Protein backbone atom coordinates (compact mmCIF):
# COMPACT_ATOMS: atom_id res chain seq x y z
CA UNK A 1 0.00 0.00 0.00
CA UNK A 2 1.12 3.53 -0.73
CA UNK A 3 2.45 5.32 2.40
CA UNK A 4 0.52 8.50 1.64
CA UNK A 5 -2.76 6.57 1.53
CA UNK A 6 -1.90 5.18 4.97
CA UNK A 7 -1.23 8.67 6.38
CA UNK A 8 2.45 7.73 6.82
CA UNK A 9 5.41 9.83 5.77
CA UNK A 10 6.78 9.47 2.24
CA UNK A 11 10.02 11.37 2.91
CA UNK A 12 13.22 9.33 2.53
CA UNK A 13 16.17 10.41 4.68
CA UNK A 14 18.63 7.59 3.95
CA UNK A 15 19.18 4.12 2.51
CA UNK A 16 20.27 0.84 4.02
CA UNK A 17 21.05 -2.77 3.12
CA UNK A 18 21.59 -5.93 5.09
CA UNK A 19 23.67 -8.43 3.10
CA UNK A 20 23.45 -11.89 4.70
CA UNK A 21 26.26 -14.14 3.49
CA UNK A 22 26.31 -17.93 3.52
CA UNK A 23 29.73 -19.40 2.78
CA UNK A 24 29.74 -23.19 3.26
CA UNK A 25 33.47 -23.56 2.72
CA UNK A 26 34.43 -20.77 5.09
CA UNK A 27 36.79 -17.92 4.34
CA UNK A 28 40.51 -17.33 4.35
CA UNK A 29 43.16 -14.61 4.08
CA UNK A 30 42.61 -13.95 0.36
CA UNK A 31 38.88 -13.47 0.77
CA UNK A 32 39.40 -11.34 3.88
CA UNK A 33 41.71 -9.02 1.97
CA UNK A 34 39.23 -8.79 -0.91
CA UNK A 35 36.35 -8.01 1.47
CA UNK A 36 38.35 -5.30 3.19
CA UNK A 37 39.11 -3.73 -0.20
CA UNK A 38 35.37 -3.51 -0.89
CA UNK A 39 35.04 -1.06 1.99
CA UNK A 40 37.83 1.25 0.87
CA UNK A 41 36.44 4.76 0.51
CA UNK A 42 33.51 4.01 2.83
CA UNK A 43 33.38 4.64 6.57
CA UNK A 44 33.78 1.60 8.83
CA UNK A 45 31.11 2.07 11.50
CA UNK A 46 32.94 -0.27 13.86
CA UNK A 47 35.26 2.46 15.16
CA UNK A 48 32.88 5.45 15.04
CA UNK A 49 31.51 7.00 18.22
CA UNK A 50 28.34 9.01 17.66
CA UNK A 51 26.20 9.87 14.67
CA UNK A 52 27.71 9.90 11.17
CA UNK A 53 28.80 13.00 9.34
CA UNK A 54 27.14 14.10 6.12
CA UNK A 55 30.33 13.30 4.22
CA UNK A 56 30.43 9.74 5.63
CA UNK A 57 26.83 9.18 4.59
CA UNK A 58 27.56 10.51 1.13
CA UNK A 59 30.43 8.02 0.70
CA UNK A 60 28.53 5.18 2.37
CA UNK A 61 29.20 3.28 5.60
CA UNK A 62 29.61 -0.40 6.45
CA UNK A 63 29.71 -2.71 9.46
CA UNK A 64 30.76 -6.38 9.44
CA UNK A 65 29.08 -8.82 11.84
CA UNK A 66 29.98 -12.45 12.55
CA UNK A 67 27.03 -14.76 13.23
CA UNK A 68 26.41 -15.62 16.87
CA UNK A 69 25.04 -19.12 16.57
CA UNK A 70 22.24 -20.17 18.87
CA UNK A 71 21.19 -16.70 20.02
CA UNK A 72 18.54 -16.00 17.38
CA UNK A 73 16.52 -18.22 15.07
CA UNK A 74 13.49 -18.60 12.82
CA UNK A 75 10.16 -17.17 13.90
CA UNK A 76 6.85 -16.78 12.01
CA UNK A 77 8.27 -16.47 8.48
CA UNK A 78 10.93 -19.07 7.58
CA UNK A 79 13.87 -17.48 5.78
CA UNK A 80 16.93 -19.77 5.64
CA UNK A 81 18.99 -17.23 3.71
CA UNK A 82 18.82 -14.93 6.73
CA UNK A 83 18.69 -17.41 9.61
CA UNK A 84 21.57 -19.49 8.25
CA UNK A 85 23.90 -16.61 7.36
CA UNK A 86 27.52 -16.96 8.46
CA UNK A 87 28.07 -13.23 8.49
CA UNK A 88 26.35 -9.95 7.69
CA UNK A 89 27.41 -6.72 6.04
CA UNK A 90 25.27 -3.78 7.11
CA UNK A 91 25.38 -0.77 4.79
CA UNK A 92 23.92 2.71 5.07
CA UNK A 93 24.23 5.93 3.13
CA UNK A 94 22.57 9.05 1.82
CA UNK A 95 22.00 7.47 -1.61
CA UNK A 96 21.62 3.88 -2.81
CA UNK A 97 24.38 3.91 -5.45
CA UNK A 98 27.47 3.14 -3.31
CA UNK A 99 25.51 0.50 -1.42
CA UNK A 100 24.37 -1.20 -4.63
CA UNK A 101 27.94 -1.15 -5.98
CA UNK A 102 29.21 -2.80 -2.79
CA UNK A 103 26.50 -5.47 -3.01
CA UNK A 104 27.32 -6.25 -6.64
CA UNK A 105 31.01 -6.69 -5.84
CA UNK A 106 30.25 -8.78 -2.75
CA UNK A 107 27.99 -11.11 -4.75
CA UNK A 108 30.79 -11.69 -7.26
CA UNK A 109 33.31 -12.51 -4.52
CA UNK A 110 30.99 -14.85 -2.64
CA UNK A 111 29.43 -16.45 -5.72
CA UNK A 112 32.74 -17.56 -7.18
CA UNK A 113 33.44 -19.36 -3.88
CA UNK A 114 30.14 -21.25 -3.89
CA UNK A 115 28.36 -19.01 -1.39
CA UNK A 116 25.24 -16.87 -1.54
CA UNK A 117 24.10 -13.38 -0.53
CA UNK A 118 20.59 -12.59 0.70
CA UNK A 119 19.79 -8.86 0.68
CA UNK A 120 17.22 -6.96 2.71
CA UNK A 121 16.92 -3.43 1.32
CA UNK A 122 15.18 -0.49 2.95
CA UNK A 123 14.98 3.25 3.38
CA UNK A 124 15.07 5.44 6.45
CA UNK A 125 12.14 7.75 7.07
CA UNK A 126 11.05 10.26 9.72
CA UNK A 127 8.83 8.76 12.41
CA UNK A 128 5.14 8.48 11.45
CA UNK A 129 3.60 7.34 14.76
CA UNK A 130 4.74 10.08 17.10
CA UNK A 131 4.03 13.38 18.81
CA UNK A 132 6.20 15.83 20.69
CA UNK A 133 5.48 14.06 23.99
CA UNK A 134 6.19 10.60 22.52
CA UNK A 135 9.39 11.87 20.92
CA UNK A 136 10.57 13.12 24.30
CA UNK A 137 9.63 9.81 25.94
CA UNK A 138 11.09 7.45 23.35
CA UNK A 139 13.97 9.37 21.80
CA UNK A 140 15.24 12.20 24.03
CA UNK A 141 17.26 9.74 26.15
CA UNK A 142 17.82 7.16 23.39
CA UNK A 143 21.24 5.55 23.18
CA UNK A 144 23.31 7.06 20.34
CA UNK A 145 25.38 4.80 18.07
CA UNK A 146 28.79 3.76 19.35
CA UNK A 147 31.82 1.66 18.42
CA UNK A 148 31.81 -2.10 18.24
CA UNK A 149 34.11 -2.44 21.23
CA UNK A 150 31.43 -0.82 23.41
CA UNK A 151 28.34 -2.29 21.73
CA UNK A 152 29.45 -5.61 20.23
CA UNK A 153 26.03 -7.17 19.57
CA UNK A 154 23.97 -6.39 16.48
CA UNK A 155 20.51 -7.92 15.99
CA UNK A 156 18.28 -7.81 12.90
CA UNK A 157 14.50 -8.31 13.18
CA UNK A 158 12.59 -8.25 9.85
CA UNK A 159 8.85 -7.85 10.24
CA UNK A 160 5.62 -7.43 8.32
CA UNK A 161 2.20 -6.31 9.48
CA UNK A 162 -0.91 -8.29 8.54
CA UNK A 163 -3.50 -7.11 5.99
CA UNK A 164 -5.84 -6.42 8.92
CA UNK A 165 -3.34 -3.90 10.27
CA UNK A 166 -3.06 -1.99 7.02
CA UNK A 167 -6.85 -1.99 6.61
CA UNK A 168 -7.26 -0.06 9.88
CA UNK A 169 -7.82 3.66 10.09
CA UNK A 170 -4.51 5.42 10.87
CA UNK A 171 -5.78 6.68 14.24
CA UNK A 172 -6.55 3.14 15.35
CA UNK A 173 -3.08 1.94 14.26
CA UNK A 174 -1.42 4.78 16.14
CA UNK A 175 -3.41 3.95 19.30
CA UNK A 176 -1.58 0.60 19.60
CA UNK A 177 1.60 2.42 20.56
CA UNK A 178 -0.05 3.89 23.66
CA UNK A 179 -1.36 2.23 26.85
CA UNK A 180 -4.99 1.14 27.15
CA UNK A 181 -7.12 1.88 30.20
CA UNK A 182 -10.34 0.37 31.50
CA UNK A 183 -13.40 2.30 32.64
CA UNK A 184 -11.98 2.40 36.17
CA UNK A 185 -8.82 4.11 34.93
CA UNK A 186 -6.60 1.08 35.52
CA UNK A 187 -4.12 0.21 32.78
CA UNK A 188 -5.11 -2.99 30.98
CA UNK A 189 -2.34 -3.06 28.34
CA UNK A 190 0.99 -1.25 28.15
CA UNK A 191 1.15 -0.81 24.38
CA UNK A 192 4.34 -0.71 22.31
CA UNK A 193 5.93 2.34 23.93
CA UNK A 194 5.74 1.17 27.54
CA UNK A 195 6.54 -2.46 26.68
CA UNK A 196 9.80 -1.31 25.09
CA UNK A 197 10.78 1.45 27.53
CA UNK A 198 13.50 -0.55 29.34
CA UNK A 199 15.57 -0.58 26.15
CA UNK A 200 15.49 3.15 25.43
CA UNK A 201 18.68 4.13 27.33
CA UNK A 202 20.76 1.04 26.48
CA UNK A 203 19.79 -0.18 23.00
CA UNK A 204 20.61 1.79 19.87
CA UNK A 205 17.89 1.16 17.31
CA UNK A 206 17.31 1.78 13.61
CA UNK A 207 14.31 1.02 11.40
CA UNK A 208 14.24 0.56 7.64
CA UNK A 209 11.03 0.71 5.60
CA UNK A 210 10.30 -1.23 2.43
CA UNK A 211 10.94 1.21 -0.44
CA UNK A 212 7.99 0.05 -2.57
CA UNK A 213 5.38 0.47 0.17
CA UNK A 214 3.65 -1.69 2.79
CA UNK A 215 1.49 -4.81 2.84
CA UNK A 216 2.95 -6.12 -0.43
CA UNK A 217 3.59 -9.82 -1.12
CA UNK A 218 7.11 -11.06 -0.55
CA UNK A 219 9.71 -9.23 1.50
CA UNK A 220 9.12 -7.35 4.76
CA UNK A 221 7.43 -4.09 5.64
CA UNK A 222 10.21 -3.17 8.10
CA UNK A 223 13.68 -4.27 9.11
CA UNK A 224 14.67 -3.41 12.67
CA UNK A 225 18.31 -3.23 13.71
CA UNK A 226 19.66 -2.97 17.26
CA UNK A 227 23.13 -2.59 18.82
CA UNK A 228 23.93 -2.96 22.50
CA UNK A 229 26.53 -4.00 25.06
CA UNK A 230 26.93 -7.64 26.01
CA UNK A 231 25.75 -6.83 29.54
CA UNK A 232 22.49 -5.46 28.11
CA UNK A 233 21.60 -8.56 26.09
CA UNK A 234 19.13 -9.67 28.82
CA UNK A 235 17.37 -6.29 28.55
CA UNK A 236 17.03 -6.70 24.79
CA UNK A 237 15.54 -10.16 25.27
CA UNK A 238 13.15 -8.85 27.92
CA UNK A 239 12.01 -6.03 25.64
CA UNK A 240 11.34 -8.43 22.77
CA UNK A 241 9.46 -10.76 25.14
CA UNK A 242 7.32 -7.85 26.32
CA UNK A 243 6.58 -6.70 22.77
CA UNK A 244 5.59 -10.22 21.73
CA UNK A 245 3.23 -10.59 24.69
CA UNK A 246 -0.13 -9.76 23.11
CA UNK A 247 -1.73 -9.08 26.47
CA UNK A 248 0.86 -6.41 27.24
CA UNK A 249 1.20 -5.21 23.65
CA UNK A 250 -1.90 -5.96 21.50
CA UNK A 251 -0.11 -4.61 18.41
CA UNK A 252 1.82 -7.90 18.11
CA UNK A 253 -1.33 -9.77 17.07
CA UNK A 254 -0.77 -8.04 13.71
CA UNK A 255 2.98 -8.70 13.43
CA UNK A 256 4.65 -11.52 11.50
CA UNK A 257 8.38 -11.86 12.09
CA UNK A 258 11.18 -13.16 9.95
CA UNK A 259 14.25 -14.65 11.65
CA UNK A 260 15.85 -12.87 14.58
CA UNK A 261 19.52 -12.78 13.57
CA UNK A 262 22.27 -12.07 16.10
CA UNK A 263 25.80 -11.06 15.17
CA UNK A 264 28.98 -9.78 16.76
CA UNK A 265 30.43 -6.62 15.27
CA UNK A 266 34.01 -6.96 14.01
CA UNK A 267 36.46 -4.40 12.71
CA UNK A 268 37.82 -6.30 9.72
CA UNK A 269 37.01 -9.24 7.49
CA UNK A 270 39.63 -11.60 8.99
CA UNK A 271 37.63 -11.61 12.25
CA UNK A 272 34.56 -12.97 10.46
CA UNK A 273 36.07 -16.47 10.76
CA UNK A 274 37.48 -16.14 14.25
CA UNK A 275 35.75 -17.80 17.19
CA UNK A 276 36.08 -16.38 20.68
SSE diagram, text form:
Elements: E1 14-22, H1 29-38, E2 43-44, H2 54-59, E3 61-67, H3 80-83, E4 87-93, H4 97-111, E5 116-124, H5 132-139, E6 153-161, H6 163-167, H7 170-175, E7 180-181, E8 187-189, H8 191-195, E9 204-209, E10 222-228, H9 233-244, E11 255-257, E12 261-266
Parallel strand pairs: 2-3
Antiparallel strand pairs: 1-4, 1-5, 3-4, 3-12, 6-10, 6-11, 6-12, 7-8, 9-10
Helix pairs in contact: 1-4
* Proportion of residues in extended strands: 25-35%
Task: Give the class-level CATH name.
Answer: Alpha Beta
Question: How large is the count of helical segments?
Answer: 9
User: What CATH architecture would you give?
Assistant: 2-Layer Sandwich
Structurally, the number of domains stands at: 1
Number of strands: 12
Terminal-residue CA separation: 45 Å
**How is the biggest beta sheet arranged?**
10 strands, mixed
Low-confidence stretches: none
Helix content, binned percent: 25-40%
> CATH fold name, please?
Alpha-Beta Plaits
What is the global morphology? globular
Q: Which class best fits the helix and strand makeup?
A: alpha+beta
| Secondary-structure element string | EHEHEHEHEHEHHEEHEEHEE
* Mean pLDDT across every amino acid position: 93
- Rounded to the nearest angstrom, the radius of gyration is 19 Å
Overall description:
The protein is an alpha+beta fold. It is built from 9 helices and 12 strands. The protein has one domain (4-273): 2-Layer Sandwich (Alpha-Beta Plaits), CATH 3.30.70.3420. 26% of the residues lie in helices and 25% in strands. Strands 1, 2, 3, 4, 5, 6, 9, 10, 11 and 12 form a 10-stranded mixed beta sheet that branches. Helix 2 links the parallel strand 2 (43-44) and strand 3 (61-67). Helix 1 (29-38) packs antiparallel against helix 4. The chain is globular. The relative contact order is 0.22.
Amino acid sequence: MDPAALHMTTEVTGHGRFLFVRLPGGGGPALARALDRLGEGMENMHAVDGNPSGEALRRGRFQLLRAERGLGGERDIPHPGVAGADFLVRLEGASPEPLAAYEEALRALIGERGGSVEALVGVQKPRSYTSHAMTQFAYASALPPGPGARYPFGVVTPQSKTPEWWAMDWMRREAFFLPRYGEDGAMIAEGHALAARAGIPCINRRLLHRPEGYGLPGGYDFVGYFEFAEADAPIFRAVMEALRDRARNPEWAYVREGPEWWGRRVGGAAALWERG
